[in-house]
TrEMBL record, chain A:
Its main location: cytoplasm. Coiled coil: none annotated. This is Histidine-containing phosphotransfer protein. GO terms for biological process: cytokinin-activated signaling pathway; phosphorelay signal transduction system. The lineage of its organism: Eukaryota, Viridiplantae, Streptophyta, Embryophyta, Tracheophyta. One of its GO terms (molecular function) is histidine phosphotransfer kinase activity. PANTHER family: HISTIDINE-CONTAINING PHOSPHOTRANSFER PROTEIN 5, PHOSPHORELAY INTERMEDIATE PROTEIN YPD1. Residues 42-145 form the HPt domain. Functions as a two-component phosphorelay mediators between cytokinin sensor histidine kinases and response regulators (B-type ARRs). Plays an important role in propagating cytokinin signal transduction. It comes from the Eukaryota. Keywords: Acetylation, Cytokinin signaling pathway, Cytoplasm, Nucleus, Phosphoprotein, Two-component regulatory system. It comes from Gossypium klotzschianum. It holds the Pfam family Hpt. It is found in: Cytoplasm, Cytosol; Nucleus.
UniProtKB/TrEMBL annotation, chain B:
Pfam families: Response_reg. One of its GO terms (biological process) is phosphorelay signal transduction system. InterPro entries: CheY-like_superfamily, Sig_transdc_resp-reg_receiver, ST_Response_Regulator. This is Response regulatory domain-containing protein. Gene3D superfamilies: 3.40.50.2300. Keywords: Phosphoprotein. The modification 4-aspartylphosphate is found at residue 66. CDD domains: REC_hyHK_CKI1_RcsC-like. The lineage of its organism: Eukaryota, Viridiplantae, Streptophyta, Embryophyta, Tracheophyta. Residues 16-131 form the Response regulatory domain. PANTHER family: HISTIDINE KINASE RESPONSE REGULATOR AND TRANSCRIPTION FACTOR RR-A-TYPE FAMILY-RELATED, TWO-COMPONENT RESPONSE REGULATOR.
Length: 156, 132
């Protein structure tokens, strides 16, 4: 034990969380490749980029929710633009299930199917929440390891 | 091991790249990826700023450009950059995945069309080629 903190458990969990995420398809190999790029010069690069992604994703989901609620008619072009942007950013960070949810969403948006879009938005929100929860756990573990005087095991 | 070798590189020359993407996450990620290989980068979030920067005389070894951009889209920005006589390597990196988009981007002047994400396996061979 180290100052009452079980360093072994922290480090074990830190390794387990991303493996579990990849196994469940929440993230794909792109995420692993990005983590490999972290080093002494940019030790928190993934956390910083993930924070940008969370901010953008929430804004886009919110914009789509508002667009789908418009009584005077849904602007499916706006929906399409949001899905396209989110598909790009989610694939870039390796958020596989969010990306797949965007692909499914696209087909309903192309068909101008409001009910289908609402279901897809719900699914997308669910996948996003799951991803955010898992990544925030990972980043919290990272901070706890550093605060306890440990070093972050790097991905190779 | 082969995959690891594909993504490892030590550049001998200082390369420069411009990243043109309206999405902050993508633009920052692509710049960080390039910087991790020692490439000096600049980023802009629309096609007009990209054209203006190139027209001002700034030279890059590599331009990474998205298709959907505000103010001036990626296709038109690419055409205008090529019309200026710029022959550097241009990668069209986009979330668009259709064959028609691919053909359009190539016809506009990009050398390579890559569906997002831009990953080391795509990027490293290109950096090796640019590094000579």
């Amino acid at each position: 034990m180290w100052h009452g903190i079980d360093m072994y458990s922290l480090v074990y969990s830190f390794g387990f969380v991303p493996c579990a995420c990849e196994h469940q398809g929440i993230v794909d190999d792109q995420f692993t490749q990005l983590r490999k790029l972290e080093d002494e010069n940019s030790p928190h690069f993934v956390m910083e980029v993930a924070s940008l992604f969370f901010e953008d994703c929430e804004k886009l989901i919110n914009n789509m929710a508002i667009a789908l609620e418009q009584k005077q008619g849904v602007d499916f072009k706006q929906i399409d633009e949001c899905i396209h942007q989110l598909k790009g950013s989610s694939s870039s960070i390796g958020a596989m299930r969010v990306k797949n949810a965007c692909i499914a969403f696209r087909s309903f948006s192309d068909g101008q199917n409001r009910e289908g879009c609402l279901r897809c938005l719900q699914q997308l929100s669910h996948e996003y929440s799951l991803l955010k929860n898992k990544l925030q756990t990972l980043f919290r573990l990272e901070k706890e390891i550093v605060a306890a005087g440990g070093s972050i095991p790097r991905v190779h | 091991r082969k995959r690891q070798l594909l993504t490892e590189i030590v550049l001998r020359n200082r390369l420069t790249a411009l990243v043109v993407d309206a999405d902050t996450t993508c633009r920052v990620l692509e710049q960080l990826l390039l910087r991790s290989y020692g490439v000096q980068t600049q980023g802009v979030d629309n096609g007009r700023d990209a054209v203006t920067l190139i027209a001002s005389g700034v030279k890059f070894n590599l331009i990474i450009i998205d298709m959907i951009l505000p103010i001036l889209n990626g296709l038109e920005a690419t055409r205008q950059i090529r019309d200026m006589g710029v022959h550097c390597k241009m990668l069209g990196v986009t979330a668009c995945s259709g064959e028609s988009e691919r053909q359009a981007f190539l016809a506009a002047g990009v050398d390579v069309f890559i569906e997002k994400p831009l990953d080391p396996e795509h990027l490293v061979p290109i950096l090796r080629e640019l590094d000579g």
